[in-house]
Amino acid sequence: MTDHHYRAGRERGRRLRDAIRHNLAGFRRALDRQGIDPGTVRSAAADCEERLPGWALAETRGKAEAAGVEYRDLLAFDCFEGLVQPDGCTVGIAAGDAAASGDTVFFKQSDKKGADEFEGGDYHQHQQINVVRVIEPEDPDRNRVLGVTAAGSTAVKMGINEEGVAIGSNISRTVTFDEAGSDSRDWAAASRGAYMREGLHHGDTAVEVAQHITPRLFSDPMSSPGNIDVADADRAVVLEGEFTHLAGEWVEDGVVARANKFEVLDDLARSEDEIPSSYRRYERVSGTLDSEAGDVDVATMRDLSVDHANGPGLQSICRHQEGDYTDETSLSAAVFDIDGDDPADSDVYVALGKPCHAWRTDEGEGWIHLTAGATAEDVPEDFRTGDAWLEHYTEEPYAGEREVAALDD
Asked: What values do phi and psi take at 346, rounded to 5?
């Protein structure tokens, strides 16, 4: 156990006590909905514990003690939440001469399924609370990480380090994986988000981050097939991985898009009839970025974040439920405008809650502007606790007349 991460975990557990309990309860309901015995998952967490680094275990123990929850339950959430409740998500990147600045612009929309049936005005209680977090490394020679996480998780959904390396990920639905069937799952799983956090701590460039993550994907493949997208000011690197396949793509001048399917390992992708949203969102992002290549900036990415083409619904980038809680829906978004001359000064824009609403508020309400070198004190309290997310999550598409925020002003 490392004292640094244990203390950091206790501080998070104290501040996020209610949000952690909420997310843990949602995880339990998801297990129940899929007919998975919680005892089986707790037992599997023992195997997962052997694979996790000491910092993650120390932080989880500290959080559990301060939040008043069982360590083994929170460990299971950290290990298997992404397997039981996979992230949907949409990613867009413009690198090199495709970006207006010549440096990389990176966009990530985070989508998730609900955990239980909605009940009137309290429907938001059944979605996973997202928070903004600054993660200080124990080793001063490693990088600080600014990211969006689920309350209670040690992993990151998307983030950036002080060297200006941004990262995001999403599940890929393949012919080899049935997320609805638990029989085929290997509970000794690997978390993309934990690998991503480690990569940002250790790498000063996109290539170095990818090099840190890749050996781990050989020894411990992702618990569900997925993409890991990494970018610095000069290039984007995409890792596509599943149980027996691993591929990479490197882009220095051009655009990259990912929804919930592989593009390099496209022979493993499920058909358009099976996953129409993944095809529609990919086409919308890649088509938009291709058409604006050379002029892509943060405004382009912000507009994609609130985009309701093919919707509003499951097939739009800003996703809204069309049925019940099992539909994936957008819960947060981030745009990283990477500065090659001063990476720590790279602009970071984060929206919590439904993007079509959050991006239309004043700065500091539904969205914030930070830099890659930000410290925890730079993050408003409402974004650290999840209160900003609670305020701006809704399933109602925005229907007012307010313009989206001018992020690049």
From this structure: -55, 140
Query: Which residues lie below 8 Å from residue 309, measured CB to CB, with a gap of 6+?
Result: 284, 316, 317
Cα–Cα dist 11/339, whole Å: 32
Classify residue 76: in a domain, yes or no. Answer: no
Whether residue 270 contacts residue 319, with contact meaning beta carbons closer than 8 Å, is answered with no
Count of structural domains within the chain: 1
On whether residue 29 sits in a domain, the answer given is no
Residue 405 within any structural domain of the chain: no
**pLDDT single digits (tens) 73-94:** 888 888 777 777 777 899 999 9
φ/ψ (deg, to 5) at 361: -95, 175
The CA distance from 409 to 394, in Å, is 27
Q: Which residues contact 148 (CB under 8 A, 6 or more apart)?
A: 110, 130, 131, 132, 133, 156, 157, 158, 159, 332, 334, 350, 352
Inside any domain, residue 10: no
What is the extent of the structural domain holding 118? 88-392
Domain containing residue 263: CATH number:
3.60.60.10
> Residue 170 to residues 11, 249, 257, 265: CA-CA distances in angstroms?
29, 16, 11, 15
pLDDT at 51 over 80: no
pLDDT single digits (tens) 250-279 = 999 999 999 999 999 999 999 999 999 999
pTM across the whole model: 0.89
